[in-house]
Design goal:
Keywords: Signal. Residues 1-19 form the signal peptide. This is Oxidoreductase. The protein is α+β, with helices and mostly antiparallel strands and 169 residues long. It has one domain (2-165): Oxidoreductase, molybdopterin-binding domain (Sulfite Oxidase, Chain A, domain 2, Alpha-Beta Complex), CATH 3.90.420.10. It has four helices and ten strands. A hairpin with an 8-residue loop joins strand 3 and strand 4 (72-78). The radius of gyration is 17 Å and the shape is globular. The chain starts with a helix and ends with a strand. Mean pLDDT is 89; it is low at 1-20.
Amino acid sequence: MKNLFAIALLIVCSAAASVAEISQPKGEVILEISGEISSKNVAETAQFDLEMLQALPSHSFVTSTIWTDGAQSFEGVELSVIADLVGFEGDTLSASAVNDYTIEIPITDAAPGRAMIAYLRNGNPMPLRDKGPLWIVYPFDSSSDFQSETIYSRSIWQLNRIAVSNSGG
């Protein structure tokens, strides 16, 4: 019985520790995640300023895109890292841009080596007028699997919101 209590306490403490991992934004909030998530930092959402995103493990790749000339270097945080941090509990992401453009992204794109939320392009922050400050990009040149209209449509720039939901299917 003592062991069972210890295990239960460990589980509760681990869950509480994961919630504590998301600090409060100190600067301008540039990404808000809502919906079916287990870790929140502001009301029922997980909100991030640029400094918070940059504090997460960074990822980078060089790829060409259909919207830019030549190969571009992107740096940011993999969507899988965000999924683990906030605890995506759904199967669909509704990613929205500043202009309210919204695209559905399956949770399977939040796997390592797939989608990244980029905050730097060619080593520089991306201003709003140049697809920033956040852009979901894929390593298009790494596989023909990423070179389709479906994947291109998921590469939303000026990203500022993600809502996690269950499609119900």
